[in-house]
Every structure is written in C-alpha cells, then in structure tokens.
Amino acid sequence: MTKRILIVDDDQDIRDVAQVAFEKFARWETITAASGAEGLEKAKMNALDAIVLDVSMPDMDGFSVFEKLQADPLTERIPVVLLTAKVLASDRQRFAQMGVAGVITKPFNPLTVWTEVAVLLGWDDDHKS
C-alpha cells in the first residue's frame, strides 16, 4: 500500500528535494506545505501516514505545529518526524518527551532520507516481505 506523507518546511528547496526523494525512491505520495498553518490545514484534510515537519519556521515553529496536531483528534495519531538543522543533547531529550517518531538532521542525504523515515516509523519491514 502506498504511504502518504506531508512535508512541512518553509524552505522550497528542502520541500522539493524531500518530495522527489520520497516519490522517486520510496514511491510514496507526497503533499507539501510551506508553513505551519498550511501544514495543519492539510493534515486535517488528508488521510496521512506520516508528517515530516521542519522545526525552525517563521510564524509557527515545528513545536507549535506538533502541539496543535496532538491536540486535534483528527491528527493526533499521525506520526511526526522532525527535520532540524541543529540537534543539541537537550533537544534530543525534549523530542523524546514530546513523543515524536524521530528526528532527521539537515542537511540530509536525498538518496537515503526516505530509508531514515521508514526506519523511524517502523516501515522498513514493508520492503522485506
């Protein structure tokens, strides 16, 4: 079954690279959003298997978006993988306490980012069967 992923990042290049990687290598269907508000709207309107969410965005950062996703019965069960340029030890602790599915640091390798997401979400078994 094809996975459907929402990519939320204010950087057009990051969205484009992730979208191409997920569609070309993993054969996942992707939807993109350029802001936290747009991401929340699209998360409510689409049946999603996961969300890849940038932490550092203007207006509404990834933490705020994640909190809003968790507070909404329509979106609370969607696994979220955070994208971030810098991960401090204290951040890793915060991410673990938040209940995110995992963290991928930027810059990521476009050839392998889909496998990182699949492993974080436990989807890597899908390719073995």
TrEMBL record:
Keywords associated with the record: Phosphoprotein
Domain Response regulatory residues, every copy: 4-121
Annotated transmembrane regions: none
SUPFAM superfamilies: CheY-like
Modified residues (4-aspartylphosphate): 54
Record carries keyword Phosphoprotein: yes
Keyword Glycosyltransferase assigned: no
PROSITE patterns: RESPONSE_REGULATORY
GO biological process, any: phosphorelay signal transduction system
Protein's recorded name: Response regulator receiver protein
Species this protein is from: Gloeothece verrucosa (strain PCC 7822) (Cyanothece sp. (strain PCC 7822))
